[in-house]
Amino acid sequence: MPDAGFDGLTVEELRRRGGLKWSLFPGAIGSFVAEMDFGTAPAVTQALHAAVDGGALGYLPPALLAGMSEAYAAWSRDRYGWAVPPERVRPLADVLAGMAAAVEHFSRPGSPVILPTPAYMPFLTLPAVLGREVIEVPMARDGDRYGYDLDALDAAYRAGGHLLVLCNPHNPIGRVLEPAEMTAVAEVVDRHGGRVFSDEIHAPLVFPGSRHVPYASLDDVTAGHAVTATSASKAWNLPGLKCAQLVLSNSADAEVWSRVGLHAEHGASTLGVVANTAAYTGGAGWLDGVLGYLDGNRRLLAELVAEHLPGVGYTPPEGTYLAWLDCRELGLAEPGAFFLERAGVALIDGLLCGGAGSDHVRLNLATPRPVLAQAVEQMGAALAAR
What we know:
The chain is 44% helix and 15% strand.
Protein backbone atom coordinates (compact mmCIF):
# COMPACT_ATOMS: atom_id res chain seq x y z
CA MET A 1 0.00 0.00 0.00
CA PRO A 2 1.33 3.46 -0.87
CA ASP A 3 0.07 5.25 2.28
CA ALA A 4 3.45 6.14 3.75
CA GLY A 5 4.85 7.55 0.53
CA PHE A 6 1.79 9.66 -0.17
CA ASP A 7 1.57 10.94 3.40
CA GLY A 8 5.12 12.23 3.09
CA LEU A 9 4.31 14.61 0.23
CA THR A 10 4.29 18.21 1.44
CA VAL A 11 2.52 21.31 0.18
CA GLU A 12 5.91 22.81 -0.65
CA GLU A 13 6.89 19.83 -2.78
CA LEU A 14 3.55 19.82 -4.58
CA ARG A 15 3.96 23.52 -5.40
CA ARG A 16 7.46 22.91 -6.74
CA ARG A 17 6.01 20.52 -9.34
CA GLY A 18 4.38 23.55 -10.96
CA GLY A 19 1.12 21.97 -12.10
CA LEU A 20 -2.12 23.92 -12.48
CA LYS A 21 -3.58 22.54 -9.25
CA TRP A 22 -0.83 24.10 -7.18
CA SER A 23 0.04 27.22 -9.18
CA LEU A 24 -3.20 28.87 -10.31
CA PHE A 25 -3.92 30.23 -6.83
CA PRO A 26 -0.50 31.01 -5.30
CA GLY A 27 -0.37 30.41 -1.58
CA ALA A 28 -3.62 28.43 -1.48
CA ILE A 29 -4.10 24.71 -1.02
CA GLY A 30 -5.14 23.40 -4.43
CA SER A 31 -8.31 21.36 -4.19
CA PHE A 32 -10.24 22.43 -7.26
CA VAL A 33 -9.11 20.80 -10.51
CA ALA A 34 -9.64 17.03 -10.81
CA GLU A 35 -6.13 15.66 -10.86
CA MET A 36 -4.27 13.65 -8.24
CA ASP A 37 -1.14 14.51 -6.28
CA PHE A 38 0.17 10.94 -6.48
CA GLY A 39 2.07 10.81 -9.76
CA THR A 40 1.31 7.86 -12.00
CA ALA A 41 1.92 4.12 -12.24
CA PRO A 42 5.49 2.88 -12.78
CA ALA A 43 4.30 1.04 -15.88
CA VAL A 44 3.20 4.35 -17.38
CA THR A 45 6.44 6.13 -16.49
CA GLN A 46 8.52 3.32 -17.97
CA ALA A 47 6.49 3.29 -21.19
CA LEU A 48 6.85 7.05 -21.59
CA HIS A 49 10.62 6.93 -21.00
CA ALA A 50 10.95 4.17 -23.58
CA ALA A 51 8.86 6.10 -26.09
CA VAL A 52 10.84 9.31 -25.67
CA ASP A 53 14.18 7.51 -25.71
CA GLY A 54 13.08 5.71 -28.87
CA GLY A 55 12.04 8.93 -30.59
CA ALA A 56 8.31 8.17 -30.69
CA LEU A 57 7.33 11.82 -30.93
CA GLY A 58 5.80 11.93 -34.39
CA TYR A 59 2.25 11.47 -35.60
CA LEU A 60 0.28 8.57 -34.18
CA PRO A 61 1.11 5.35 -36.09
CA PRO A 62 -1.55 2.70 -36.72
CA ALA A 63 0.19 0.08 -34.58
CA LEU A 64 0.13 2.29 -31.47
CA LEU A 65 -3.53 3.15 -32.05
CA ALA A 66 -4.42 -0.52 -32.45
CA GLY A 67 -2.55 -1.32 -29.26
CA MET A 68 -4.51 1.26 -27.29
CA SER A 69 -7.83 0.04 -28.67
CA GLU A 70 -6.98 -3.54 -27.78
CA ALA A 71 -5.77 -2.51 -24.32
CA TYR A 72 -8.98 -0.67 -23.52
CA ALA A 73 -11.13 -3.50 -24.90
CA ALA A 74 -9.33 -5.97 -22.63
CA TRP A 75 -9.64 -3.64 -19.63
CA SER A 76 -13.34 -3.16 -20.28
CA ARG A 77 -13.92 -6.89 -20.61
CA ASP A 78 -11.96 -7.82 -17.50
CA ARG A 79 -13.01 -4.93 -15.25
CA TYR A 80 -16.61 -4.29 -16.31
CA GLY A 81 -17.68 -7.38 -18.25
CA TRP A 82 -18.27 -5.27 -21.36
CA ALA A 83 -16.98 -6.88 -24.56
CA VAL A 84 -16.12 -4.05 -26.93
CA PRO A 85 -14.73 -4.74 -30.42
CA PRO A 86 -11.30 -3.06 -30.43
CA GLU A 87 -11.95 -1.46 -33.82
CA ARG A 88 -14.80 0.52 -32.25
CA VAL A 89 -12.51 2.12 -29.66
CA ARG A 90 -11.30 5.34 -31.23
CA PRO A 91 -8.77 7.96 -30.03
CA LEU A 92 -9.64 11.49 -28.97
CA ALA A 93 -7.87 14.30 -27.16
CA ASP A 94 -10.20 14.20 -24.17
CA VAL A 95 -13.77 13.57 -23.06
CA LEU A 96 -14.84 17.08 -24.06
CA ALA A 97 -13.81 16.27 -27.61
CA GLY A 98 -16.06 13.24 -27.30
CA MET A 99 -18.96 15.36 -26.18
CA ALA A 100 -18.39 17.78 -29.06
CA ALA A 101 -18.37 14.86 -31.49
CA ALA A 102 -21.58 13.47 -30.01
CA VAL A 103 -23.32 16.84 -30.31
CA GLU A 104 -22.12 17.48 -33.86
CA HIS A 105 -22.47 14.02 -35.37
CA PHE A 106 -24.94 12.03 -33.28
CA SER A 107 -27.65 14.49 -32.28
CA ARG A 108 -30.39 16.20 -34.23
CA PRO A 109 -29.03 19.41 -35.85
CA GLY A 110 -29.81 22.47 -33.76
CA SER A 111 -31.41 20.52 -30.92
CA PRO A 112 -30.76 21.48 -27.28
CA VAL A 113 -28.51 19.36 -25.10
CA ILE A 114 -30.13 17.89 -21.99
CA LEU A 115 -27.86 18.21 -18.97
CA PRO A 116 -28.69 16.94 -15.47
CA THR A 117 -27.21 19.29 -12.88
CA PRO A 118 -25.06 19.70 -10.91
CA ALA A 119 -22.67 18.82 -13.71
CA TYR A 120 -19.03 18.97 -14.75
CA MET A 121 -18.50 22.64 -15.45
CA PRO A 122 -17.53 22.59 -19.18
CA PHE A 123 -20.63 20.54 -20.00
CA LEU A 124 -22.61 23.71 -19.32
CA THR A 125 -20.57 25.90 -21.66
CA LEU A 126 -19.44 23.66 -24.53
CA PRO A 127 -22.88 23.34 -26.19
CA ALA A 128 -23.06 27.12 -26.70
CA VAL A 129 -19.72 27.01 -28.54
CA LEU A 130 -21.35 24.47 -30.86
CA GLY A 131 -24.44 26.63 -31.33
CA ARG A 132 -26.66 24.61 -29.00
CA GLU A 133 -28.79 25.53 -26.03
CA VAL A 134 -28.64 23.62 -22.76
CA ILE A 135 -31.72 22.38 -20.94
CA GLU A 136 -30.67 22.03 -17.31
CA VAL A 137 -32.51 19.27 -15.46
CA PRO A 138 -31.85 19.46 -11.70
CA MET A 139 -31.21 16.02 -10.26
CA ALA A 140 -33.73 14.68 -7.77
CA ARG A 141 -32.60 14.63 -4.17
CA ASP A 142 -33.78 12.28 -1.46
CA GLY A 143 -32.06 13.49 1.67
CA ASP A 144 -28.37 13.44 0.79
CA ARG A 145 -28.73 11.04 -2.15
CA TYR A 146 -29.03 12.27 -5.72
CA GLY A 147 -30.75 10.54 -8.63
CA TYR A 148 -32.23 11.34 -12.02
CA ASP A 149 -35.62 13.05 -12.21
CA LEU A 150 -37.31 10.93 -14.87
CA ASP A 151 -40.32 13.22 -15.26
CA ALA A 152 -38.03 16.21 -15.76
CA LEU A 153 -35.96 14.29 -18.31
CA ASP A 154 -39.14 13.39 -20.15
CA ALA A 155 -40.16 17.05 -20.18
CA ALA A 156 -36.74 18.06 -21.53
CA TYR A 157 -37.14 15.67 -24.45
CA ARG A 158 -40.65 16.95 -25.09
CA ALA A 159 -39.20 20.47 -25.13
CA GLY A 160 -36.99 19.53 -28.08
CA GLY A 161 -33.87 18.15 -26.44
CA HIS A 162 -32.26 15.22 -28.22
CA LEU A 163 -28.88 14.38 -26.64
CA LEU A 164 -28.74 13.56 -22.92
CA VAL A 165 -25.40 13.89 -21.14
CA LEU A 166 -24.84 11.23 -18.50
CA CYS A 167 -21.84 11.20 -16.18
CA ASN A 168 -21.11 7.94 -14.38
CA PRO A 169 -19.38 7.84 -11.95
CA HIS A 170 -20.77 11.30 -11.43
CA ASN A 171 -18.72 14.47 -11.28
CA PRO A 172 -19.24 16.36 -8.96
CA ILE A 173 -21.53 14.35 -6.66
CA GLY A 174 -19.72 11.01 -6.66
CA ARG A 175 -22.67 8.71 -7.36
CA VAL A 176 -22.12 5.39 -9.15
CA LEU A 177 -25.33 4.57 -10.98
CA GLU A 178 -27.03 1.24 -10.46
CA PRO A 179 -28.26 -0.70 -13.51
CA ALA A 180 -31.91 -0.19 -12.57
CA GLU A 181 -31.42 3.59 -12.51
CA MET A 182 -29.81 3.58 -15.93
CA THR A 183 -32.50 1.30 -17.35
CA ALA A 184 -35.15 3.75 -16.17
CA VAL A 185 -33.31 6.60 -17.88
CA ALA A 186 -32.91 4.52 -21.03
CA GLU A 187 -36.66 3.97 -21.21
CA VAL A 188 -37.21 7.73 -21.30
CA VAL A 189 -34.53 8.19 -23.95
CA ASP A 190 -35.89 5.39 -26.10
CA ARG A 191 -39.45 6.65 -25.85
CA HIS A 192 -38.37 9.91 -27.47
CA GLY A 193 -35.88 8.47 -29.97
CA GLY A 194 -33.12 10.33 -28.14
CA ARG A 195 -29.38 9.85 -27.84
CA VAL A 196 -27.03 9.63 -24.87
CA PHE A 197 -23.46 10.82 -24.43
CA SER A 198 -22.05 8.82 -21.52
CA ASP A 199 -19.00 10.31 -19.80
CA GLU A 200 -17.33 7.40 -17.98
CA ILE A 201 -13.89 8.89 -17.40
CA HIS A 202 -14.03 8.10 -13.67
CA ALA A 203 -15.04 4.46 -14.24
CA PRO A 204 -11.82 2.95 -12.81
CA LEU A 205 -12.30 4.99 -9.60
CA VAL A 206 -15.08 3.09 -7.81
CA PHE A 207 -15.00 2.21 -4.12
CA PRO A 208 -16.05 -1.00 -2.33
CA GLY A 209 -19.80 -1.38 -2.20
CA SER A 210 -20.35 -0.04 -5.71
CA ARG A 211 -19.66 -1.40 -9.20
CA HIS A 212 -19.30 0.43 -12.48
CA VAL A 213 -21.60 -0.81 -15.22
CA PRO A 214 -21.12 0.92 -18.59
CA TYR A 215 -24.39 2.44 -19.77
CA ALA A 216 -24.05 1.03 -23.29
CA SER A 217 -23.49 -2.47 -21.90
CA LEU A 218 -26.99 -2.77 -20.41
CA ASP A 219 -28.79 -4.04 -23.52
CA ASP A 220 -29.25 -3.51 -27.24
CA VAL A 221 -31.34 -0.40 -26.61
CA THR A 222 -28.63 1.47 -24.73
CA ALA A 223 -25.94 0.20 -27.11
CA GLY A 224 -28.03 1.56 -29.96
CA HIS A 225 -28.45 5.09 -28.66
CA ALA A 226 -25.28 5.71 -26.62
CA VAL A 227 -21.86 7.09 -27.42
CA THR A 228 -19.35 6.54 -24.62
CA ALA A 229 -16.19 8.49 -23.78
CA THR A 230 -13.58 7.48 -21.25
CA SER A 231 -9.86 7.75 -20.58
CA ALA A 232 -7.08 6.63 -18.29
CA SER A 233 -6.39 10.29 -17.52
CA LYS A 234 -8.26 10.56 -14.20
CA ALA A 235 -7.39 7.19 -12.67
CA TRP A 236 -3.70 7.31 -13.65
CA ASN A 237 -3.25 11.06 -13.53
CA LEU A 238 -2.52 11.75 -17.21
CA PRO A 239 -4.66 14.76 -18.24
CA GLY A 240 -1.76 16.70 -19.73
CA LEU A 241 -0.98 13.95 -22.24
CA LYS A 242 -4.24 14.36 -24.18
CA CYS A 243 -5.73 10.99 -24.95
CA ALA A 244 -9.21 9.56 -24.47
CA GLN A 245 -11.30 6.78 -25.96
CA LEU A 246 -14.58 7.10 -27.83
CA VAL A 247 -16.46 3.80 -27.74
CA LEU A 248 -18.97 3.24 -30.55
CA SER A 249 -21.41 0.58 -29.38
CA ASN A 250 -23.37 0.05 -32.60
CA SER A 251 -22.51 -0.43 -36.25
CA ALA A 252 -24.46 2.61 -37.48
CA ASP A 253 -22.44 5.00 -35.32
CA ALA A 254 -19.23 3.24 -36.28
CA GLU A 255 -20.05 3.79 -39.94
CA VAL A 256 -20.77 7.48 -39.36
CA TRP A 257 -17.52 7.85 -37.44
CA SER A 258 -15.53 6.26 -40.25
CA ARG A 259 -16.60 9.22 -42.42
CA VAL A 260 -16.44 12.13 -39.96
CA GLY A 261 -14.08 11.17 -37.14
CA LEU A 262 -10.62 11.71 -38.61
CA HIS A 263 -10.25 15.33 -37.48
CA ALA A 264 -11.22 14.53 -33.89
CA GLU A 265 -8.88 11.54 -33.80
CA HIS A 266 -5.93 13.75 -34.69
CA GLY A 267 -6.34 15.43 -31.29
CA ALA A 268 -4.94 12.41 -29.47
CA SER A 269 -1.20 12.67 -28.83
CA THR A 270 1.22 9.85 -29.48
CA LEU A 271 2.58 9.94 -25.92
CA GLY A 272 -0.96 10.06 -24.58
CA VAL A 273 -1.77 6.86 -26.45
CA VAL A 274 1.41 5.26 -25.10
CA ALA A 275 0.48 6.26 -21.55
CA ASN A 276 -3.14 5.13 -21.79
CA THR A 277 -2.09 1.79 -23.23
CA ALA A 278 0.43 1.25 -20.43
CA ALA A 279 -2.15 2.19 -17.80
CA TYR A 280 -4.70 -0.29 -19.07
CA THR A 281 -2.20 -3.11 -19.54
CA GLY A 282 0.17 -2.63 -16.60
CA GLY A 283 -1.33 -0.13 -14.19
CA ALA A 284 -3.98 -2.15 -12.34
CA GLY A 285 -1.87 -2.95 -9.29
CA TRP A 286 -0.84 0.66 -8.77
CA LEU A 287 -4.43 1.81 -9.22
CA ASP A 288 -5.74 -0.67 -6.67
CA GLY A 289 -3.28 0.72 -4.14
CA VAL A 290 -4.35 4.28 -4.90
CA LEU A 291 -8.00 3.31 -4.55
CA GLY A 292 -7.26 1.93 -1.10
CA TYR A 293 -5.64 5.22 -0.13
CA LEU A 294 -8.52 7.24 -1.57
CA ASP A 295 -11.00 5.05 0.29
CA GLY A 296 -9.22 6.03 3.49
CA ASN A 297 -9.32 9.68 2.47
CA ARG A 298 -13.07 9.70 1.86
CA ARG A 299 -13.60 8.19 5.32
CA LEU A 300 -11.15 10.58 6.95
CA LEU A 301 -12.97 13.51 5.38
CA ALA A 302 -16.17 12.48 7.16
CA GLU A 303 -14.34 12.75 10.49
CA LEU A 304 -12.73 16.06 9.55
CA VAL A 305 -16.02 17.60 8.42
CA ALA A 306 -17.76 16.50 11.61
CA GLU A 307 -15.00 18.02 13.73
CA HIS A 308 -14.18 21.22 11.88
CA LEU A 309 -17.13 22.11 9.64
CA PRO A 310 -20.32 22.06 11.70
CA GLY A 311 -23.34 22.60 9.48
CA VAL A 312 -21.66 21.20 6.37
CA GLY A 313 -23.19 18.09 4.82
CA TYR A 314 -21.02 15.37 3.33
CA THR A 315 -21.79 11.94 1.92
CA PRO A 316 -18.68 9.93 1.00
CA PRO A 317 -18.55 9.43 -2.78
CA GLU A 318 -19.23 6.00 -4.25
CA GLY A 319 -16.77 6.76 -7.04
CA THR A 320 -14.38 9.51 -8.24
CA TYR A 321 -12.03 11.29 -5.85
CA LEU A 322 -14.32 14.31 -5.55
CA ALA A 323 -16.27 15.32 -2.45
CA TRP A 324 -19.48 17.33 -2.74
CA LEU A 325 -19.92 19.49 0.36
CA ASP A 326 -23.34 20.92 1.22
CA CYS A 327 -22.87 24.43 2.62
CA ARG A 328 -26.51 25.52 2.60
CA GLU A 329 -26.64 25.95 6.37
CA LEU A 330 -23.61 28.24 6.44
CA GLY A 331 -25.34 31.27 4.92
CA LEU A 332 -22.45 32.03 2.55
CA ALA A 333 -23.29 33.90 -0.64
CA GLU A 334 -20.35 32.33 -2.50
CA PRO A 335 -18.79 29.52 -0.48
CA GLY A 336 -16.04 28.91 -3.03
CA ALA A 337 -14.89 32.52 -2.88
CA PHE A 338 -15.16 32.56 0.92
CA PHE A 339 -12.93 29.53 1.41
CA LEU A 340 -10.37 30.80 -1.10
CA GLU A 341 -10.14 34.30 0.36
CA ARG A 342 -10.57 33.52 4.04
CA ALA A 343 -9.20 29.98 4.36
CA GLY A 344 -6.65 29.80 1.57
CA VAL A 345 -8.26 26.69 0.08
CA ALA A 346 -9.10 26.67 -3.64
CA LEU A 347 -12.31 24.71 -4.33
CA ILE A 348 -14.92 24.60 -7.09
CA ASP A 349 -17.98 26.66 -6.21
CA GLY A 350 -21.03 24.55 -6.89
CA LEU A 351 -22.77 27.31 -8.82
CA LEU A 352 -20.26 26.69 -11.61
CA CYS A 353 -21.88 23.24 -11.89
CA GLY A 354 -25.30 24.72 -12.65
CA GLY A 355 -28.09 26.25 -10.62
CA ALA A 356 -28.64 23.00 -8.73
CA GLY A 357 -25.12 23.27 -7.36
CA SER A 358 -25.54 26.58 -5.54
CA ASP A 359 -24.45 26.63 -1.88
CA HIS A 360 -22.14 23.66 -2.41
CA VAL A 361 -18.42 23.25 -3.09
CA ARG A 362 -16.43 20.46 -4.73
CA LEU A 363 -13.29 19.33 -2.94
CA ASN A 364 -10.56 17.07 -4.36
CA LEU A 365 -9.76 14.09 -2.11
CA ALA A 366 -6.74 12.91 -4.10
CA THR A 367 -4.14 14.56 -1.91
CA PRO A 368 -1.94 13.43 0.99
CA ARG A 369 -3.88 12.97 4.21
CA PRO A 370 -1.94 15.64 6.12
CA VAL A 371 -2.76 18.11 3.33
CA LEU A 372 -6.43 17.09 3.35
CA ALA A 373 -6.54 17.63 7.10
CA GLN A 374 -4.81 21.01 6.77
CA ALA A 375 -7.31 22.15 4.15
CA VAL A 376 -10.34 21.27 6.26
CA GLU A 377 -8.80 22.73 9.41
CA GLN A 378 -8.18 26.02 7.59
CA MET A 379 -11.75 26.02 6.30
CA GLY A 380 -13.04 25.43 9.82
CA ALA A 381 -10.90 28.22 11.25
CA ALA A 382 -12.23 30.63 8.63
CA LEU A 383 -15.81 29.76 9.52
CA ALA A 384 -15.12 30.15 13.23
CA ALA A 385 -13.55 33.59 12.65
CA ARG A 386 -16.53 35.03 10.78
